[in-house]
Amino acid sequence: MLEIKPVTIEDLPIIEKLGKLIWNHNFISLISQEQIDYMFARGYTYEAMKKEIESNKVSYIKLLDIKELIGFGAYGATNNTGEIQVYKLYIHPDHQYKGLVNNLLQYIENQAAQSHYKYLTLSVNKNNKAAISSYLKYGFAIEKSLVIDIGNGFVMDDYLMKKPVSR
Ligand SMILES: CC(C)(COP(=O)(O)OP(=O)(O)OC[C@H]1O[C@@H](n2cnc3c(N)ncnc32)[C@H](O)[C@@H]1OP(=O)(O)O)[C@@H](O)C(=O)NCCC(=O)NCCS
Fold first, then answer.
1. Are 122 and 135 in contact, with CB atoms under 8 Å apart?
2. Which of 92, 121, 134 to mutate to test the pocket of ligand 1 (most atoms within 8 A of CB)?
């Protein structure tokens, strides 16, 4: 039985562990190990995620299969009126490619609809073909190209994707 629940600070060690597993499993074909380590340290450690949750600007959710944590997501309002950005979507490698991410997306979209947001956005590496194909399937469209300097000589070479919130 699948369930989605908000992530608490107590969940963060296991979220960090799952995040590390997925980053090293999925992203080594997309970016260098140095960039993986740099980006992970900035956004996926216990301390980094705790700070985000405590800021109340980012909400984290977890996907459970019975009691096992098999995925997580993060989202929050941006400075653009009516927009919720989906910051994180991660499914355990043993459970990828079965459409499970749609559970996280639907939960986020429901939250967005209840609070009268108009659209969801997300940014995805241009070479992350599985993610792009998945998001297109669930109603996102490519809005524009984004090349973001993230420091230390690294860039994020992404597409911004956007989806209207259904009511
Ligand atoms: C990207 C991710 C969130 C998508 O979730 P998911 O539940 O696996 O997605 P779906 O099952 O809906 O889509 C899978 C897509 O992957 C591709 N795919 C399917 N089987 C695959 C395989 N064995 N190997 C690689 N890609 C495959 C297909 O393009 C498929 O899309 P299609 O159904 O339109 O053909 C998830 O795979 C994941 O966590 N990946 C690693 C982390 C990541 O990239 N996060 C997103 C950052 S923006």
1. yes
2. 134
CA of 48 to the centre of ligand 1 (A): 26
Choose which residue among 86, 94, 96 to substitute to test ligand 1 binding: the one with the highest number of ligand atoms within 8 A of its C-beta.
Answer: 96
**pLDDT tens-digit series, residues 103-131:** 999 999 999 999 999 999 999 999 999 99
Domains, in order of start, for the chain = 2-164 (3.40.630.30)
Mean pLDDT of the 11-17 span = 98
pLDDT at 167 (0 to 100): 76
Ligand 1: lining residues by beta carbon, under 6 Å? 22, 26, 89-91, 96-101, 124, 128, 130-131, 133-134, 137
Q: Report whether pLDDT(15) > 80.
A: yes
Checking 135-140 for CB contacts under 8 A at 24+ apart, the result is: 135/161, 135/163, 138/101, 138/102, 138/105, 138/163, 139/163, 139/164
Residue 122 buriedness (CB in 10 A; 0-12 / 13-18 / 19+): buried
